Structure formats: structure tokens, C-alpha cells
Amino acid sequence: MKFVALVSGGKDSVFSIAKCLAHDHELVALANLYPPPEGPEELDSFMFQSAGAAAIECLAECMDVPLVRAPMSGHSGHQGLHYTPTEGDEVEDLYSLLARVQHQFPDVQAVASGAVLSTYQRTRVESVCERLGLRSLAFLWRYDQTKLLQEMVEYGLEAVIVKVSSQGLSPHKHLGKSIAELRPLFARLHAQHGFHVAGEGGEYETLTLNAPFFRKRLVLDETEVVIHADDVYTPVGLLHIHRCHIEAKDVGEDIRGAVRKVDGLLISPAGGQRLQDLSAQAHAKEEESTIAERNVRGRSRPRHIRPLPHIWRQGKQLNISGLCVPTTRSQPSQTSKPHQRAADQMRHCLESLQAGLALHGLTLHDVVFVHLYLRSMSSFAAINAVYCQVPFHALHPPSRSCVELPFPQPFDSEDGRGGRGGGGGVEVLLDCMALAGSGAAMDTGRFQTRQVLHVKSLSGWAPLCIGPYSQANMLAHGHLLFLAGAIGLAPSTMTLVTPPSLEASQALCNCAAVLHALRSSLRTAVMVMVYVSVGMEGEREGGTGWSSAAVAEWKTMCRLDAGYQKADKDEDNSNTKRNNSVSRSNCSSSDSDDEDEEDRFLETFPAPVFLPVGVPGLPRGAAIEFEVMALSTAFAREQMLIKSTERGRPMPVRMEEKGGCCPFPLPFQPASTYQKAGDEISSSSSSLSYAWEALHLPYVLSLLSLSLLIDDDQEDEEQETGVAASSCCCLFLDYSHVALTMVQQIEKVLQLANLTWRQLSHLRIFYAVDQLENEQSLREALAAALPDEGQCARTFLPVSCLAATDEEVEGTTLLFRVQAVALDLEKLRTEAWIHDVPDGGI
Fold first, then answer.
1. pLDDT by residue (tens digit) across 378-403?
2. What number is the average pLDDT over the span 539-543?
3. Taking a C-beta distance cutoff of 8 angstroms, is the pair 738, 661 a contact?
4. What tens digit of pLDDT does each residue of 757-778 get?
5. Quick one: DSSP state of residue 563?
6. What totals of helices (H) and strands (E) does the chain contain, helices first?
7. Neighbouring C-beta atoms of residue 797, cutoff 10 Å
8. Do 603 and 566 form a contact (C-beta atoms < 8 A)?
9. Whole-angstrom Cα distance, residue 438 to residue 435?
């Protein structure tokens, strides 16, 4: 892309240009806002550096690119975190300047800035870019400061200090010195009192004299130290530039030599080598492991899918599940085009969503997370175009995940296998989670129960969000985090990494980057949903979509925080104090002990609950997608989470007239499949077994992954007796028994967590399309089996395949994988208050 660079002359704005050039973007012009001549030399601006402004014209000549300049007001009329256009604000000066740049250079597509940690600056640049139709480039965003300074020096960027305003820095002693000279001092000051080594706390400002991509170098001829505040502890001083000039660079510093150095900047903050190392073991295991071939029966889509929405409400939390508007035979013929039909269904779904929210006094601004399930990923563009038109909150949109599922074919499909009855032609299905009043609270700036991380700049930090969805939503004052679905995109290029075996590592690195920006980490993840692209038939590379070794490696990468290990950080920081995930206003000699204690705690934190399922396709043709739910590190340190696992066969159930979950007989059951009340479950379901793992925080949170399995021996017997392989499970399965088994195990986990049925917010039942021919029967059985107070939001989702990943359940076929979430947000916030846990989030 052709870009204009916002420059102040400082090291960050210049180094961001180098990063853009390394990614093959073309520098068209520089843009600069400077203090008006009649005003002071430096303005107290929240946005822009003005120290060293006298040398900007020479700097443009060094780069040999045009410069567009304008005076700035230095007035911040709107000081909220998320900017809205405000007359007289200095951000409007930036808008006017970039509008001039667009007029002079119509082919400009993007704006580069040197924002590193300031959300205030980044969101304002993004706001201006959005108004002008430009892309924001922020390749330094969320860079580790010590690593950033080290890379600048190693790259050959020469910058001198032109302003100091920090304890430990003296105007007469340090002004005019280079960052390379002062790096050891910065490291000592960081260890002593949390000094920001890259100056992100306003400790110092710089002027760049030379960089490898410069065609000439800047030379300061005459300077003067000007004291602004002669404070004993924190003196403030400027290096006033009276005269400077440019000169030709040495022969060894020509632009050809610079190209080699620029190429070295392509490594993102996540670290390409770390990505290779993390995946090496997983790739080797995948090559060596032999994946047992599945006995593939004739695969057919479910004949009857009639998704019905369920709504669950507790306090401010609202869950709407299984929302879809299937195409029926009676609908007009203009919906026959697949993409148009999908877009129409998406439109109707979102209209229904708005109506459902309104019934409970909520709006789209209150939506926290949207799960989007599509019949065909080829319709994604049409569906997303409709989604983007919906008035979600512009500044605080929900997070989102999107996968393809094998829903029934539409009625007019070429193969003629359209669904039967009123439930055919499902193109789109969605789930929604919302928090009442959260959107309005963020609008007014009141104490926020929900926060949103929505970065729209292209950077090396994590993939940007294009459209009305965000990287993460945080509830309970930043203590509970929901991350958007993450695929293996390289943040700097927004393309999938290659080979596909690296996608899992890259996706988890992206998740780790987002979590670290929110004072959390993968080591405090509590649930990880894994979607593996295995195609329509549920097979990839000759076997199932994943192996036990692959799942073990994903879990290991979460335990290692995707490679963000303490040893790596200590090496990067040159033995300086590592930043704590919990913000502290003061640092003491005990900080290192606290960090060691934190590391020891995180090493013993229970592994998250993993739920892998195989799906036909993922966005952009990705091989894998992760959806992460995590706790803030501060909250996790103060709580004792319990990991529980269990395997076995369901106990025979004796139903009572009252108090039982599912009185027999059920109205939809064939007479031959039930016995009278009080009798034991028939032996036809004796081969059913279960395995579950759960993570719970008593009285607050419980997360469950439940697998229901059938012994392969039973299937062999069915086949020997002449039962068709493609339908053997469907013929002998007692759906009432299956539903009761689900309810039994969920109830057991709720009791372990001291939670009630009323706190069970959502169930997702994943099933392989060849294992369940009539979804409606299972829906009705589960509805009858659940107690009245446990009628939570429920979503039934067909997938390409399910595979048992534990050696102890070999010899079985996985029928269903159930995800259960029980949550009490008010109690979670109360626990944080009782333990004096500081608010998390941004």
C-alpha cells in the first residue's frame, strides 16, 4: 500500500516507517503538525510531540519525500479513551492535515504512526483514518519496550535525546546523547523505579538523525539546553535547535546496504523463530503418530433440523441460542441464488435478534459475543456484508467467531438432497450473549462492567479487526475475557502462515498477544474451543482431523503461554525487571519475589477445558480456529480453581412421579423403546459411556466438556446382525437415555461447583452428521430431561466429525460432545471485591 507517515522526528515515528518499508509498503509523503510560530516551542499536547520540530523539514529532505505540514492547537477538548469528532480538538487538526495529504496525493491508502502503548493515540488515529477511508498502520503497537529499543539500535537508527522529564535524567548531562549511549542507564532506571525504557511514560523524547533507509543524514550544528522546570527530583529540559544541516552519507551507508537491514525488521513481536520452535515438536509428533482409520459409514446430512431459539436470562446476562430463519418452499423464487438466500437469512436472523433483545430491554449495543455458523463459507462475503450493516456499537462491538457447519442442503440444491419439512435450507445460525446496559454505560463513561479491545490498525501485534467485531470483550470489570475466534494469520500481512502445520502455533500466539494486552495470558485460559477444518466428510490427510498428540501440543502451548516464557523475557530485557501483569503504582525490592511467586502459581494453574471438533471449513480456508475464554491474571492468582475429570457408564435411572427429570413414556418415543416408570433403562443402551472434564470456581463458574460414547463392539454386533452401518447408531439409540445421561453428568458438575441449574447459561451439543439422523428427537428428549429451572439456552450443531482424544476411551465411537457453561457474573465480581483484586482489562 502507498502510505503517508505521521512524523514528529522521534525514533518511534521513524522506526515505524522502516517497519512499513520492510513489509513492502511504499512511502509517499510525510505529515507533521508543529507548534504555531507565535506560541511556545513545545505545546502540552496529549497526541503529538513538538520537541525537535525545527528539524522536521531537514528530516524530510533526508528521506527524500515530500512533507505536508500544518500548525496545531495543542488543545484536547475530548479526553475520553474513544474519540468522537469535537470542534477545536487537536485531533481535528490531524484530520484537516490528512485531508490535505489526500488531496495532494490521491493514491495514498494508509497512514503510519508510531503508537506503541498509548490507546489514546491509536484510537484517535484510527478514528481519523476511518473518516477518511484510510487504513491505519501501527507496526510498533504493543511492542515490548526493551526489545523495541534494542531493535532500533541494532537496526542502526541514530536518535538523540531532545527532552527529558524524569527522575534519573539530567538536562545538562543527557540532552543530545544518543539512545545507544543511554540504554544501560535506562535499564538501571527501569529496575529501580519502573522507568519506561522506550520513553512511553513521557520520560524523554528524541530526534532521529539517521536511519539505514535515509538518503542523507541530519547534523545538528548549534543547540542550547533550555530548562523548563528546575525541579530537584524531576527536572524538565529541552534541547533547542538553533541551526542544523544535512549531508551526504558515507559510501558504506548507501541505500543498497539499507535494504538488507530493513529485511531484518519483518519479524513481528510474537517472534517468527519462536513460532517455528513451538510447532516443531507438534509437527514431529504428527508425522510419527499413526492415526487409526475411522470406520467411515455412509455419511448423510440430518434429515430433520428445525432449530428453535432458546433464551436464558439471569440478572443482566442474556443468552439467545439457535437463532435462524430457514428457507421454506413457500418463499419467493428470488432466494434461489445461494449467496442471496444466505444474505436474506442473515438479515432475518439479525432482525429477530434485535426483536429478542428488545423484549428484554436490551439493544445491539449490549451484545458481547456472536457465534456465527454458516452452511457454506463461500457465502461469507454476502453474509458479512449484511452483518456489517447492523448497528452494533461502533466503538464497542461484540467479539465474534465464525465456522462452517454441515447444515442441510437447500431445497433447490443441484443434488436434490434438500432438507425435508419446514426446517430445510438452513444457511445461517447464530448464538448471542449480551449484558444489559453495558453499551449505555460505556457511552456515558460510567463505571464499566464491560470493556472492549478493538484494534483496527495493521501491526505486528495481533490481527486487526475488519468490520463490526472486536478482538476481545471483558466482563465483570475485566476479570472474565472472551476472545474472538483466532486463526493463523500473520498480523503484519493478514495472510495465513505457511505451511499449515504452523497455523495452530500462530493462532495461539495471536491469542497470547491479545491476552497480554488485557493483563491476562494463555496460562489463565479456562476454556478453549478448537475448530479443525476436516472437510465435509470429516477426514483430513487420510485420517481424522486431529490426533491425541496434536491436542496435547495445543495444551502445552497454552501452558507455555504460546512461548511467552519467563526465560525468554528475561533475556530480552537484559536482566531488567519484568513487567507485572497487575499494574502497580510503586515498585519495591520485593517485586522480583512477587513475580517468581506469580510464575510458580501460573505453572500450577489447571489446564483449560479443551473441546476439539471437526468442521467442513473455516474463514479464509484456515486449518484451525481457537476460541478462548480466560480469567485475568490478577483474579486467577487469588482464586483456587478445581479441575475434575471422570469416565464411566451412566448409572441405571429409576424415575419417580415427581422430582424426576424425565418421566416415561415421552410423547414422541416409539412404544418399543421405553419401559414403564420405575423400571431400569433398557439394555439396548448399556453400551453408552461418558467422559468429562470440568473446571470450576465454587459458587461462581463451572465449565464442562462432556463426551458421550458408544462401544465399537456394540456397533460390530449390530452390523453382524445385518443392521445397515449408516444408520446403526440411530436405530438402537434411546434418545431419552442419552438426554438423561447428559443431565446426570451436568448436575454432578454443578454440585461440585456449588452452583444451581439456574446458573447454567448455555449448552452446545455437537454431533457428527452420520451419528444422528433425527435431531428433533434429541431436542425434545433433552427439553424433557432438564428440570424447569435448568431450561438454559441450547444449540444443536452438526459437525463433520468427532474423535476421542484420550487413550482411555479407545475402542469407542464419540457420539456427542457437549459444552456447558454455568456462570454468575455478580458473584464473580463479588469474589474480586472480597479478595481486593484490582480491576483488569485495558
1. 999 999 999 998 889 888 899 999 99
2. 47
3. no
4. 999 999 999 998 877 767 888 8
5. G
6. 22, 29
7. 23
8. no
9. 6
